[in-house]
TrEMBL record:
This is non-specific serine/threonine protein kinase. It is an enzyme of class 2 (transferase). GO terms for cellular component: mitochondrion. InterPro entries: Kinase-like_dom_sf, MitoQC_Scaffold_Kinases, Prot_kinase_dom. It comes from Pristionchus fissidentatus. Its EC number is 2.7.11.1. It is found in: Mitochondrion. It catalyses: L-threonyl-[protein] + ATP = O-phospho-L-threonyl-[protein] + ADP + H(+); L-seryl-[protein] + ATP = O-phospho-L-seryl-[protein] + ADP + H(+). GO terms for molecular function: ATP binding; metal ion binding; protein serine/threonine kinase activity. Keywords: ATP-binding, Kinase, Magnesium, Metal-binding, Mitochondrion, Nucleotide-binding, Serine/threonine-protein kinase, Transferase, Transit peptide. Residues 146-472 form the Protein kinase domain. Its cofactor is Mg(2+). Its main location: mitochondrion. One of its GO terms (biological process) is regulation of apoptotic process.
Length: 573
């Protein structure tokens, strides 16, 4: 029997799995179980299928009990068989038991007595091997421990330089170019201190005024020593938030480009009457990224798939901020940084520049005259752009909205709010039409986060789920997989009675987890590093209720009607 004779639903899923996940020998073993009679299918890349009888002794092998991953189509169940390499060896008579067999999570007793979703969440949320950002290291808190390279960017508040540890540079080899990310893997943000006048408590003042910058640094509260009373930095690192190593106050160096680029921030400036004997400023040491999103969109060609992956990562960053009540408040494309090794690779994305951040455990601000409401006026959400003092301003969904505007920039290369529209006055129907090649659920999610009224705005967790789910292998098939959704309205009660949908969620997550685990032993180009991390990030914040709500976006349904234009037309008639 060839694969062609297997039901089309199962075949499509099998092909998708097989075309993305192959083991080192180029084979992927799947068990496709017709409802009536089991058959075993060996898939090779290109989805050629050959049915083989799996030896009897192998089917008693406990490894096969790992078959927990099921995707139901109308007639067939497709089950990836445990660890692919292991099965391959067993299937072809190999004797060696691979080392990683013992570490397979499905053999371990679950940490909590919970379901698949919770176990997967636990695995992907806590293991370093799926989350590079969890790797810990300490960096020195003094400038003399580092070698400063060339300038890689500057803004109104800081200049950023390539950086490496002194110890990394003294290997006797020819001096490496500071343009080289490997030679200078760190970045130093030298904050502009415009107050070099002689005064007491210089250090306290610097930490207090510039401390918000450190919101992504989990140990910032310790460094700040209560200088900003209610400061609450993010509790942990996140793959889509700029990775900060440390921050310290040290003497201000006059670097070669300083007089040209930021003369007014130098202690030599004529405006000071009496200058500090040892002028100081705040330095932040970060991981160095390759370029800004703005430069990437301008200079690099990228596929729609890559751009969808960027939007999904951006939303993951926003979800993390939202869940920890931090508002970045300056979401623009030169504050989004990307890293990648080779051209054409899908970049990893981080949100950076927290100089305007609100990080005190609350999104609500008592807005008084003269108070700063964040960075760029054009990237402020409507409720912030329209706020007038005195009033209470709620920033909870401001970053989500700004990320929506950025997703237009990612998809169309043009942020409609930089030049064409104003966030204070735009009508939802005036937003640019997104490409037909973009999946409908993603388009609907963008519409949802661009809602003017924050009460109607889509929560970032749901939007992130929609962007991510549509990128995963089964994304295109979700509609087939959830027939129960096709005609019925989404009702809370439905969930109680529909254990079937819960099973689909379990199956979907199991497949995703299996694919992601397997992908670590497959060649890199099958699933990019950024996508693997995105999967881990998505799985580490799984929430059944949010998943349930997100699946509704994959129903066939009429486009969400946008408010504004129709009513205007009617009133005009
Ligand atoms: N970690 C990093 N790796 C590589 N480049 C970086 C990094 N951090 C910042 N940059 C570059 O430096 C530029 C300025 O950094 P940043 O936006 O943080 O400064 P700023 O003065 O706070 O900016 P703004 O004027 O927007 O407030 C960025 O646009 C980017 O090009």
């Amino acid at each position: 029997m060839s694969l062609n004779r297997i039901g089309t639903g199962a075949m499509r899923i099998a092909q998708q799995v097989a075309s993305r996940v192959v083991n080192h020998n180029g084979t992927w073993l799947l068990k496709i179980v017709p409802r009536i009679r089991p058959a075993h299918v060996l898939l090779t890349p290109g989805a050629q299928a050959v049915v083989r009888a799996i030896p009897r002794q192998l089917s008693r092998n406990p490894l096969l009990r790992m078959v927990q991953m099921t995707i139901r189509s109308s007639r067939y169940i497709v089950r990836p068989l445990s660890n692919i390499a292991m099965n391959h060896r067993a299937f072809f008579g190999g004797q060696d038991r691979p080392r990683y067999a013992r570490r397979q999570f499905l053999f371990k007793p679950p940490r909590h007595n919970q379901g698949i979703v919770e176990r997967v969440k636990d695995l992907f949320g806590t293991k370093e091997r799926y989350n590079e950002h969890l790797k810990k290291g300490t960096l020195p808190d003094r400038l003399s421990a580092y070698e400063i390279g060339g300038n890689i960017g500057y803004g109104c508040n800081a200049a950023v330089y390539a950086l490496r540890l002194q110890s990394d540079g003294v290997d006797g080899s020819a001096p490496a170019s500071d343009k080289d990310l490997k030679a200078y893997p760190l970045a130093l943000k030298l904050m502009f201190n415009y107050e070099h006048d002689r005064r007491s408590n210089v250090e306290d003042g610097l930490w207090r005024e510039m401390g918000a910058e450190l919101a992504p640094l989990p140990r910032a509260a310790k460094l700040l020593k209560g200088r900003i009373g209610d400061f609450r930095p993010l509790p942990s690192t996140h793959p889509n938030i700029v990775h900060m190593g440390t921050a310290f106050v040290d003497s201000m160096p006059i670097l070669p480009d300083a007089r040209l680029r930021y003369p007014e921030a130098l202690p030599t400036s004529v405006m000071y009457e009496a200058i500090e004997p040892d002028p100081k400023t705040l330095f932040v040491v970060m991981r160095r990224y390759r370029m800004t999103l703005q430069a990437y969109l301008r200079e690099q060609k990228s596929s729609l798939w890559a751009r969808r992956a960027l939007v999904a990562q951006l939303m993951e960053g926003v979800v993390f901020l939202y869940n920890h009540k931090v508002a970045q408040r300056d979401m623009k494309s030169d504050n989004i940084l990307l890293s990648y090794d080779t051209d054409g690779e899908i970049p990893q994305l981080v949100i950076s520049d927290f100089g305007c951040a609100l990080a005190n455990g609350s999104f609500v601000v008592d807005y008084k005259d003269g108070m700063c409401l964040g960075g760029n006026l054009r990237t402020r959400a409507p409720e912030i752009a329209l706020a007038r003092a005195p009033s209470v301003v709620d920033f909870s969904l401001a970053d989500t909205w700004a990320a929506g505007a950025l997703s237009y920039e990612i998809f169309t290369k043009l942020n409609p709010f930089y030049s064409v529209l104003s966030s204070a006055t735009y009508k939802e129907c005036e937003l640019p039409v997104l490409s037909d090649r973009l999946p409908e659920p993603s388009k609907r999610a963008v519409e949802g986060i661009m809602r003017r009224d924050p009460k109607e705005r889509l929560l970032p967790g749901i939007a992130a789920n929609v962007f991510s789910l549509s990128l995963f292998r089964f994304g295109a098939d979700l509609q087939d997989l959830i027939p129960a959704f096709a005609s019925e309205p989404l009702a809370k009660e439905m969930r109680k009675v529909s254990s079937r949908i819960e099973r689909i969620i379990d199956d979907m997550i199991s497949l995703l987890a299996a694919e992601t685990i397997s992908a670590r032993i497959t060649p890199r180009d099958l699933i990019s590093r950024a996508e693997l991390q995105l999967r881990a990030t998505f799985m580490s914040r799984l929430n059944r209720d949010e998943l349930w709500e997100s699946l509704a976006f994959f129903r066939e349904s009429p486009p969400v009607s946008s408010s504004g234009c129709e009513s205007d037309n009617e009133s005009a008639v």
